[in-house]
Amino acid sequence: MADDIILDIRNVTKTFPGVVALSDVSIQIHHGKIHGLCGENGAGKSTLMKILSGVYPYGSYKGTIFYENRELKLEDRAIRQAIEEGIAIVYQELTLVPSMTVGENIFLGKEPVENGVINWDKLYADTRQILEKYKLDVPPNAVVKTLGVGKMQMVEIAKALSENARILILDEPTSALSESEIDKLMEILETLKEHGVTCIYITHKLEEFFRITDSVTILRDGKTVATNPTSELNHETLVRHMVGREMKERFPKNSRKPGEVIFKVENLVATDPNEPSRKVLDGVNFDLRQGEILGIAGLMGSGRTELVTTIFGEYGNIISGTITMDNKTLNIKSAHDAMLHGISLVPEDRKGQGLVLMQPILRNISLANLDRFAGFFRIDQDAELAAANQQGKNLSIKAANLQDRVDSLSGGNQQKVVIAKWLLTNPQILIMDDPTRGVDVGAKFEIYKLMNELAENGVSIIMISSELEEVIGMSDRIMVMHNGRSGGVLETQGVTQEKIMAIATGIEA
Ligand SMILES: Nc1ncnc2c1ncn2[C@@H]1O[C@H](COP(=O)(O)OP(=O)(O)OP(=O)(O)O)[C@@H](O)[C@H]1O
Ligand SMILES: [Mg+2]
Predict the structure, then answer these.
(1) What are residue 317's phi and psi, to 5 degrees?
(2) Which of 222, 248, 260, 353 has the fewest CB atoms in 10 Å of its CB?
(3) Could you tell me the residue ranges of all domains in the chain?
(4) Helices (H), 317-464
């Protein structure tokens, strides 16, 4: 084996009941480089990374892995052993304990102890040192649940780096990060590279491969399709290898014509329910037409998620302002109220709010709709299954069996289950908070098509998105938020990314 190869994965095969997740996968990863891993939802990326990090120990898969010229056998305490070997991973789904502080999370299970008690001063000093070293802007003693998803991701990275990692695996690290946080992450990766750390980088944002990686391996249906130096790849070849066919358009055509205004938000002001002195919405105004897709753009923390969860009755305390639908004032106090008015919300954080992980896929899809399937004494399981099957097909959810637990699905497919569930409620207004986060290019297109179809059938959609191309590609109009306010509602026709960013950053009102 060549000296510059740190990791040599040979003929790895991993199966789950009914699924071949990895089939004869071979990849060589060079020392000190950033190696990209690309593939559709369910292609096997996370499974391979879980093998490298000891989640699936030696013996639970076939094939051989050489790490620094030795065979890697992670056996009894496999996860701990991987960390001691210097293989660190930041998982696709956040794994922090929400009620603990940043420092407690980073040192969980390895707290500095002196005379049998935890040395808190040292713990926080060490935390501060790590955060500063990698320029991560998070307060060491903040309780994690008070942080936004972006900051939580930073804590995950700090936690992985807190032991001397030789290989750092990042499984979709940027799916919840803002533009500036992504820039920061890229800087961190460059720094790590200078220190000789090897990185394996998974993302569905294809432009990131071109920005940061040295080479890319493409997986399709558990098989290695190709490994190439990034310089020899372009967007089209990457997509073609990934999905196995040409994909020319990024956004499907539509022929919708939005109708009358059916929903209106006026001067909405709301405070944080946990911190009543803090205004999260400070005067929001917009209206929504029937059969329209209204995009909401804005930086992380600008109040986008707060706005939709407040409308949905789940979050802010409304201080003033009105919400009207069909000329009637709404007074929504809970998600249940919202649904009675025909409003559904696909939430941002699928693991926390969207799914019951231990339940079957089927039940997760029908969960918000059990009323519909409930007979006098029991749930009509045939109807439930038929509806779930239809949704599964519409969204091409990749599952061996709908009776399997939802946490056996790949990350992107879990996201599709959340969408399927809320589509089944037949909403009049569908609010989607970053609906294509973590979803591959092919499935994104399917979700876009579905959104267009819904809108053509008269459903009004509010879509929050951090990807400006997506907002522009899908919306009829775009509201840009800044500091809890609606910075303006723009007609999409003729709008530019620069214009949106100018409003989002407050340069332009
Ligand atoms: N614990 C499990 N039990 C059963 N099947 C599983 C389990 N984990 C993964 N799978 C299946 O293995 C396949 C590969 O999943 P994996 O999570 O590796 O995909 P991925 O490439 O990471 O996708 P994504 O981009 O959506 O995150 C999928 O078909 C998935 O349903
Ligand atoms: Mg994955």
Answers:
(1) -85, 120
(2) 248
(3) 5-243, 249-342+427-509, 355-426
(4) 335-340, 361-366, 370-373, 381-394, 411-423, 441-456
Question: Backbone phi, then psi, for 430, in 5-degree steps?
Answer: -115, 120
Residue with tokens 């609010």, as numbered in its chain: 431
Pair type for strands 293-298 and 460-464: parallel
For residue 116 the two structure tokens come to: 């049998």
**DSSP assignment of 186-199, as one string?**
HHHHHHHHHTT-EE
pLDDT in tens, 313-363: 988 899 999 999 999 999 999 988 998 999 999 987 666 667 888 888 888
Strands 198-202 and 19-30: unpaired
5-243: CATH topology is Rossmann fold (3.40.50)
Q: What number does CATH give the domain 249-342+427-509?
A: 3.40.50.300
> What is the arithmetic mean of pLDDT over 236-254?
88
Q: Whose CA is nearest to atom 6 of ligand 1?
A: 408
Residue 202: pLDDT over 90:
yes
303: left (phi > 0), else alpha (psi -120 to 50), else beta? left
Q: Among 46, 60, 364, say which to mutate for ligand 1: greatest number of ligand atoms within 8 Å of CB.
A: 46
pLDDT digits (tens, 9 = 90+) for 485-506: 998 899 999 999 999 999 998 8
416 touches ligand 1 (CB under 6 Å): no
Amino acid sitting at position 283? G
CA distance 162 to 147: 20
**5-243 with 249-342+427-509: one CATH topology?**
yes
Do residues 236 and 242 lie in contact, with contact meaning Cβ atoms separated by under 8 Å?
A: no
Contact in structure between 218 and 35 (CB atoms under 8 Å): no
The C-alpha atoms of residue 172 and residue 158 are separated, in whole angstroms, by 16
8 A C-beta contact, residue 88 and residue 130: no
Residue 400 CB-density burial (10 A; 0-12 exposed, 13-18 middle, 19+ buried): middle
Distance (angstroms) between ligand 1 centre and the Cα of 409 equals 5
Structure tokens at 147: 């942080």
